[in-house]
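Running low. Got one?
___
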Amino acid sequence: MAEPGVVNLNFRQALPAPLLYVGFVDYYGPLDWRTHSAHRHAYYQFFIVTEGRFLFVSETGENLWLEEGEALIFRPGVMHNWHVEPGVFCRTFMVFFDPIPEGAFHEVQERLSQEPLPSHWRLEVEPDEVAPLLAAIRRECEASSSLATAVVYGLTMALMAACTHSLAPGSGAGSEAALPEAVLKALQFIEAQFAEPISVADIARYAGLSAGRLTELFRLHVGTSPLSYLNNHRIDKAKILLLYSPLKLAEVADQTGFNSLPYFCRRFNQATGVTPGDFRRGRFDQVLLECESTLPTERG
């Protein structure tokens, strides 16, 4: 059986605001939440399962199972983790995006700005309506031509609008559990200083705790250590720069807090299964072949 893996097919051209990332992500389990860290994004995450079964674990510990054809949107700043069961090949489509300006795509913007803000929204999807849009977006991701930027933008916004048709204002699911003030301060410090050579001691000092107590609270409320969270946060930021900036690899390493290019490349490879250069070029072919070679002839 192939090793667990994650394979990306993303649109590799910069997209107009508010879109940050558009792509198809395939997962081959087991990918257990104990082997990777809980995390949060500074942007919205739209996620739809097109094949298989996927589990999100919310900040409150709630299990959010998504079956084929089901979708979810996390609002910015919500802690979450994920899991794919052993032997399961799960295909997904996801979008990262900034808040939609008021007056733009009114229906989607209205539903995502309701007060009080929920942690996430579950969406009812009409397969016959979204399947042609997903197929068209996949073709553009495979070509990844700069001339297709407007096409991908329009198709993606149309897809999210179609998925939010059934989402009435006030129908958000769940609310974010309150984190201890010291943990919130630590997370804010990491967000502001991740590009600097900060240590766990620096984070703990800002939060007003000892390093040991901060680590204890992080493991309890975030699901990982402060150092693992910091490294994963840096990798997350590096992915965005690799996809949508002209920066050289050494510059990406410098702007995301890694002290050398070799160290950045090693940590990035450990976290994603590919080198930063291959991630930028979308070269996940061999990983995908290894995953698909182990699939049963009939999928349950």
